[in-house]
Q: What sequence folds into this?
């Protein structure tokens, strides 16, 4: 495995690949996750969830996050 630096331009592909390869459990912790990203995660993990993979998303309520209101 080669060392890489991930930034906003290339981490999504790696992130999604890791999610797709998960078999038992996926835990995502992000204080700023948006509905569009949640919808994508639901879409790409449908088969895994049906096969018993558990998904946990840890975030904050976007209605209470002052940073997201601007």
A:
């Amino acid at each position: 495995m080669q060392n890489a630096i991930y930034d906003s331009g290339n981490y999504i592909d790696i992130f999604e690949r890791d999610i797709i390869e998960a078999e038992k459990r996926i835990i995502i912790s992000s204080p700023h996750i948006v509905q569009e990203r949640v919808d994508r995660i639901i879409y790409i993990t449908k088969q895994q969830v049906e096969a018993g993979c558990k998904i946990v998303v840890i975030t904050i309520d976007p209605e209470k996050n002052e940073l997201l209101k601007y």
The mean pLDDT is 79. The helical segments are 11-21, 35-44, 46-50. The first helix runs from residue 11 to 21. The chain is about 35% helix and 15% strand.
